[in-house]
Amino acid sequence: MEVLHVGEALLEVLNPHDEVVQVSVQQGFSLYTQGLVYRLADYEDHVTATVQDLVPAKVVFDMNNPANSSCSCDDGLMCRHQIAVFLAAYSKRASVRLWIDRWKSKQEEAEAPIEEETLALTSARDVLEQKKTFKRSFSSWKGYIDKTFDRYILKNKTMPEYMLDRMWGSFNQKLKEKAPIEREWRHLYDFVSLYVVLLNCLKLIKSDPSPKVSLSFFHDLASNSAEELQEIIPSIGRQAQPFAFDEFLEGIKDEAWQLLEGGSSLQYERVDFYRSLWRYLLKKSAWRSKEIKRLEEALNEKHSEAQTASYQIALIHLLLLTNQDEQAMELLGGLQASASPFLYAWLQYSIETGNEKRAALFIEHVIKRVNPFLSALVSYYERTDFVRTFSMPIRVFCQETKRSDLLERFYRETLPYSYYEYSRVLFDREEYQKWVELQMFSGETLTLTGNESLKILQAKEPSLLLPLYHHAVLSNLEQKNRQAYKAAVRYLKKLKALYKKLKQENRWDEYIENLSVSTKRLRAFQEELQRGKLIHVE
């Protein structure tokens, strides 16, 4: 059931003359007006939320049958928490205060509830008529979205985040009322809406340093909008576009420059989306040529390091799109190592378009610049994640072009963060000598190497296991505890069997004798050697 219908139903069943009901509604309204309803989630047939009371209450409000609603407080049907959650959900569609007034006066025949700001609900025919009169132009759409965003969001920018979340729901509802019916136009409308929201958020973040503003809300909103736009834009670019779209594309182009401004704040999200705009939507040669000239002029002026990097990345991208690779690669050499994440999209694009020469140049550049960038990352996880992300397209390219040398150079340059990827590739290629060298270099224990790999190696190249087992013995001895000594003896037994298989018993005898002598002060280890029947004491 739609929340407005639920509101009408509750007006019928909640008796304003019942003292228990009066208390529930009054307390629920108080909780709602204090902003104590949070984590509100609207599903198809129910709403969930948490109400911050003396003890936090978790509510599931059934929209089809409110009598089936539940609350963790167990105070019975329509407790104050359920009322508060209902009012929070109702506020997204209509005026809560008017609903309360109607409940108090019990005006069953009153006019239907009205939208916030006393905007009347309209019939389906009226809605269609309004949509027809809503001019289809970028300026018209942008003007409406700007005005609505200002009304619902910007004018309330100092509100707590949970209140802004509520206003965001109301804002989206207003946008839906103006959405075109035709699929391709609706798709474009959704795109423009997100685009304008992103621009508004970026403008506020850049210009309003007031501590009263919920900047984290706008940062998250900008980041999420950019992510959604990235998901939508390829399909917008692929769909057949009527001539009427041209005016929209020009409007989108005219606003795109704002994405490059803002220093380091949300730089990756802004600039990466700028690149997608010029790749998927803004394809006219004249537009791209003009943008290249504008970027070149901007780079002749003095800017902050982050701002300069944004212009450089944008110019490199436009040069690549217009097949001016030589100039692009020249500029690429001047990029700071911190710009390395931007290389991924270019590398992927080069591979997708079959430009082997360009892809190889990007990989070479990554190999040269990757270590300074990795050093700047804070955690081991971030470094490993970066290497893993880049290794995927590099591996695909090297397999298709039989350039295993490039892949191996990348893995070697990014050790130890590429250890697992590099190890798997070497083993799959049956380059067992290099695989063993990698294990020795990394210092990983044989328990992490995997028994299956050791079994395969023992069957195909058993002699290569010798250095691994020797290394494992020494590593355990260095720990100097009984458990490690027992592990060392287990590896010694494997070594003994391996030397026997290789018919090198003399080498084994010499090795175990030297080991026994050199560790004679490690009494516990000597005991384990005897217990394992590896040495005999007269």
UniProtKB/TrEMBL annotation:
Q: Which residues form a coiled coil?
A: 474-505
Query: Is Cell division set as a keyword in this record?
Result: no
Q: Name one Pfam family in it.
A: SWIM
Signal peptide annotation: none
- Which keywords annotate this record? Coiled coil, Metal-binding, Zinc, Zinc-finger
SWIM-type domain location = 57-90
UniProt GO MF annotations: zinc ion binding
Which InterPro entries has this protein been placed in? Znf_SWIM
What's the protein name?
Answer: SWIM-type domain-containing protein
